[in-house]
Give the backbone structure.
Amino acid sequence: MFASIGTFFAARLRRWIPDAFVFALLLTLGVAAAAWLATPSTAVQVLDAWYKGFWLLLEFGMQIVLVLATGYAVALSPVAARGIDWLARRISRPEHVYLAVMLVGPLLTLVSWGWVVLTAVLARELAERVRGLDYPFLVACVFLSSWSWVCGLSSSIPLLLNTQGNFLITSGLLEGTIGTAHTLGSRFNLIYLVAHMVLLPLVVMLARPRGDGAIALSSLSDAAPASLSVEGEADRSRLPEAGALSDRLDHSRWLTVLVALAGLAVLARYGRTRGFDVNLEIMIFAFLILGIALHGSPMRYVVAMRRACAGISGIVFQYPFYAGIMGVMMFTGLGAAIAAWLASFASPQTLPAIAQFVGAVVNFAIPSAGGEWAVVGPGLIEAANHLTAGLGPEAHQALVARIAMATAYGETSTNLLQPFFLLVILPVMGAGVRVQARDVIGHLLLPFLVSYLICLAVVT
């Protein structure tokens, strides 16, 4: 039954989920429209917020590039290679590969979220050696296995709460730091960890594809001729069935035109207000917009950037767009307004569940737990301050710790539905293989539902 459900959603969402870059463009237009309609910001102010946000995640984007490069280098070392060989000799069945990934991956990402790259290298090596694997499902398992980062050593929100002089303290929302004993070391976080460690591998084993329907790694080999044009390679990405929504979006000209026009409006305004003040930021922005306009469709630009940047292409040119979305959420007040509005209905018992929902929804627009907390955290903490007035510092600290982790849990759960985050593992899992986010997301829908319900039970 579970396998049938997973296969059903995988087949349907493959036709509906566009490329991660198209997803970013649609989010850009949607969030910009929401900010214009739901906040006092004018269209010009929304454009300014978009451009200002473009550069917020440059440091984080470079960190991801370095994590990929350095993590892959570690995985290619002789010691790591011997470890992979040792494990591979003891695994001969597809279900054992899925289970190994779901058990090893969380242990690695407890140390650092970037170590999911090591899990990807392990899975790719096992896929080369074990017959009968469904490769898109294995990619989904690798991505799913990174869930544990949120309760580990690189969890950004609890680490920020424990940092002296953080922005919540300097703004007067908190009187002091909140130690990790109240967040990462709390009983509810340990329950979250154990529940996921037990239930998600069980879901994977029940939902794994079986029989002749498995999509083998060898069948996905990308044998595109080196001389194939950008346009030709983009056309090769189309599904065999005509009229799929994902293909219409991936090859859409109107989407390209709308984003290019918005970019040209920013450039024109920059020229009027700043003159010939050329710097690296405006040059990069101009080249991005020009490239999108010249290629004529999102997929052609994706192919061009893939060739230009090889394995890190998606991160290099998509992160600025997500940072732009984050800028709109931050600088127009849209993100804070959403959090404050939802928190206005809260009680001490329901605020953690609301924080989880806020974290899950806003995550689609802000692909960074720390960045998301900077936007929605103040509104949620203001609500906590109001609800715990007169209850003493211990009650206040406990509620703030719980809503902080609830936000992080919500953010982590919808990572499974956000095509962008797959870009962290696709440089390894997708090397020389025709596999895209739309081939993987359907397998993650059932685990997302299980994870979200676990989170809800834990935080309430």
Observations:
- The chain has a mean pLDDT of 84.
